[in-house]
Design a protein that fits this description.
By secondary structure, this protein is α/β, with parallel strands linked by helices. The longest helix has 14 residues. The structure holds zinc ion. Zinc ion binds next to helix 2.
Length: about 270
């Protein structure tokens, strides 16, 4: 008998939010324009032996400059789950946009897991164009390059098993090297889709988010995510406020702060 595959608990930390309109989020706008706020998350995977952080959010300084409502430092917030940031050893970076990789320097003992194509794009010829550069923070990208010189960056060329029960999957389109995480849990295979689908509606209606490097690849990534997840109820979009409504708080004191994603959604 093979050993049982480890099951992870998954926590979503909401660290920022902003008001926005439906037309801000879909290529081609939206004929039924109305409010559609955006939440910002990092995710924590707690296995029997290891803890993984997925993305590191942005700093208050960057969030304020970009007119986001900063709620709490996503790294300090690890302490809400009794996790010491100094003890974090592994961080998955789904991609290098400012809202996913800021704060990397607050995890001094972590290794970072990233797709090589993401770093290539973020240091490559297209960054001269503001449309593409806008999503990245120059200091973040330089910092990640430095981590590579210090042997703290693991770069992948496609899908990889990071640990039993945790695999990373290449799902580009929103960015050139975006990866999603598939996590084994007590309810099946949950996929942290990150910005392969910002909202449930992007993937469910096949309507890509407005920021994109390759529309066709973005649509293919929707299918990749669906294939990886045990069901549609196992897909977690990257920025949808519905996540905090569909999943229970990790504790009574953490309502609208930390949600538990390895349990069944309520709706
Ligand atoms: Zn994002």
């Amino acid at each position: 008998m093979p050993n049982k595959i480890p099951e992870y608990k998954i926590f979503a930390i909401k660290y920022a939010t902003r008001d926005a309109r439906r037309a801000d989020h879909f290529i081609g706008g939206d004929p039924h324009d109305g409010p559609m706020p955006m939440d910002y998350f990092t995710w924590v995977l707690v296995g029997p032996d290891r803890v993984f952080l997925v993305d590191t959010g942005f700093t208050e300084k960057v969030g304020t400059r970009r007119k986001r409502t900063f709620l709490r430092c996503p790294i300090d917030s690890l302490r809400l789950l009794d996790i010491d940031p100094d003890a974090v050893t592994d961080v998955v970076l789904t991609h290098l946009h400012y809202d996913h990789v800021g704060n990397f320097d607050k995890l001094p003992h972590a290794r970072f897991h990233l797709q090589e194509k993401e770093l290539a794009f973020a240091t490559g010829r297209h960054i001269r164009y503001p449309y593409f550069a806008h999503g990245f923070e120059e200091e973040d990208i330089v910092g990640i390059v430095r981590l590579n010189f210090r042997q703290r960056l693991d770069l992948y060329d496609g899908d990889v098993e990071l640990a039993p029960g945790l695999t990373l999957h290449f799902a580009p389109g929103h960015t050139a090297g975006l990866q999603v995480a598939r996590v084994n849990t007590q309810r099946g295979q949950v996929v942290l889709a990150s910005d392969s689908s910002h909202y449930y509606e992007n993937i469910e209606a096949n309507r890509p988010f407005i920021a994109v490097v390759d529309i066709a690849a973005t649509l293919d990534a929707f299918r990749t995510v669906e294939r990886l997840a045990s069901s549609r109820r196992h897909i977690i979009p990257g920025h949808d406020p519905l996540v905090m409504r569909r999943y229970p708080a990790a504790a009574a004191t953490l309502k609208d702060v930390v949600a538990r994603l390895d349990v069944e959604p309520v709706a």
